[in-house]
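INFO batch 0412 | record 1 of 1 | parsing
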Amino acid sequence: MYLIINCHGCGKIIMASTANKTKSCTHCGAKVDLHGARVLARSSTTTEAVAIIQELKQRKSKDSQVTFKKFRV
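INFO prediction complete | emitting tokens
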């Protein structure tokens, strides 16, 4: 089983195996405790987990673009 979580250090979305207790962020190197992490999604395969991460990143980028346009002067 895989967890899709946010890194508490940089806020990036990362994937972690439930077989581990911690995960080092591939972006900033922060050590994330999986038991205290906010779980965004769960997946049974890495392929599915990667697809979920891509979808979450697309949603996040669409939200930030809307916010930028919303406050643009």
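INFO post-check: The chain has a mean pLDDT of 86.
INFO record closed
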